[in-house]
């Protein structure tokens, strides 16, 4: 930046220090859901049970297929975004917007996957007599337990993503105000000079 | 503010003008989901069908009861928050945080309600042979149509709330930076004076 004052330089240094610790925190916060997504994915993928009543696998239920896809996409995105986040470079507006929008979409997608799967697990445990849906977990207890575990992990991922959404919206909207801030600063100097 | 410069005054006026149009936009954006929530709520509350196969009401399904509650809470919160938003007064940090957190929670709650209800409507239309859940919409077509309408409206509410979350996070995080901005400004004056 041409003609930057000593204060502006000090600010830039402070910003760099802040953004360094923030970058580490963000990378951790992106690697954690990646791990959790992979665990939830593997538990669900291996979820099948065969007994005297018949056999059931996760792919018999469209909802669980969606859960697997959502977790897979989430794990991939978490890994990619962690790699992008860990590289120290200036945050451009377009990068902040991309992170913000993708984080928001992923948060909603993974929350929706968790919610619909919870509904199916709930129906599998309790059934619904009004619409003649019988409970199935009496016959397929192990299947239901694993599904519950996978869904619970998905909800922890949702929490991580809610935090990431917060972080990326903070990054974007504090960035948004940066030009106004430097305009104020210039303005302040001008007034003092006049 | 004691000793404010003309430029700072002009900025304050600009801020006031911006916040006035933003306030109107926000109030509209809060009244819209209120109306939609009430419509979705009424459609679901009146949703019952009796025919030769038996009778079904929304309250037979726990999910639809949750949808009704979520829509009711959402309508109430939308109205209250619209009233708070329409009154012109300085936005305090605690108010910005309250709006931000409640908007986020409502967005997730209404999205989850929409998602689980979609799952139930889907199962009611298609059934799931693997877990012996039969489709019910062949027998209760009118019930399913009304439920679909209510769920669709709930998704539009989710979109409104996603926008509101965006707005309140923008408000909060641009507010967050305000103290840094005025610090810059002061700093600018000091440097110019030295």
From TrEMBL, chains A, B:
<feature type="transmembrane region" description="Helical">
    <location>
        <begin position="66"/>
        <end position="87"/>
    </location>
</feature>
<dbReference type="Pfam" id="PF04535">
    <property type="entry name" value="CASP_dom"/>
</dbReference>
<feature type="transmembrane region" description="Helical">
    <location>
        <begin position="99"/>
        <end position="125"/>
    </location>
</feature>
<keyword id="KW-0472">Membrane</keyword>
<comment type="subunit">
    <text>Homodimer and heterodimers.</text>
</comment>
<feature type="transmembrane region" description="Helical">
    <location>
        <begin position="145"/>
        <end position="167"/>
    </location>
</feature>
<keyword id="KW-1003">Cell membrane</keyword>
<feature type="region of interest" description="Disordered">
    <location>
        <begin position="1"/>
        <end position="21"/>
    </location>
</feature>
<keyword id="KW-0812">Transmembrane</keyword>
<dbReference type="InterPro" id="IPR006702">
    <property type="entry name" value="CASP_dom"/>
</dbReference>
<feature type="transmembrane region" description="Helical">
    <location>
        <begin position="28"/>
        <end position="46"/>
    </location>
</feature>
<feature type="domain" description="Casparian strip membrane protein">
    <location>
        <begin position="20"/>
        <end position="160"/>
    </location>
</feature>
<comment type="similarity">
    <text>Belongs to the Casparian strip membrane proteins (CASP) family.</text>
</comment>
<dbReference type="InterPro" id="IPR006459">
    <property type="entry name" value="CASP/CASPL"/>
</dbReference>
<keyword id="KW-1133">Transmembrane helix</keyword>
<protein>
    <recommendedName>
        <fullName>CASP-like protein</fullName>
    </recommendedName>
</protein>
């Amino acid at each position: 930046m041409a003609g930057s004052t000593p204060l502006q330089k000090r600010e830039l240094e402070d910003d760099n220090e802040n953004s360094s610790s923030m970058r580490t925190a963000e990378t951790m916060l992106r690697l954690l859901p990646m791990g959790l997504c992979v665990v939830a994915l593997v538990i669900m993928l291996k979820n099948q049970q065969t007994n005297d009543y018949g056999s059931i696998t996760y792919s018999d239920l469209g909802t669980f297929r969606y859960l697997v896809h959502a977790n897979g996409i989430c794990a991939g995105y978490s890994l990619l975004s962690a790699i992008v986040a860990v590289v120290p470079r200036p945050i451009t507006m377009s990068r902040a917007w991309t992170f913000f929008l993708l984080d928001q979409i992923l948060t909603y997608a993974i929350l929706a996957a968790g919610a619909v799967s919870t509904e199916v697990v709930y129906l599998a445990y309790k059934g619904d007599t009004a619409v003649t849906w019988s409970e199935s977990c009496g016959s397929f207890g192990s299947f239901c337990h694993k599904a519950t575990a996978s869904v619970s992990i998905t909800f922890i991922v949702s929490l991580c993503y809610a935090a990431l959404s917060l972080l990326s919206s903070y990054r974007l909207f504090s960035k948004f105000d940066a030009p106004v801030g430097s305009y104020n600063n210039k303005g302040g100097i001008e007034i003092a000079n006049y």
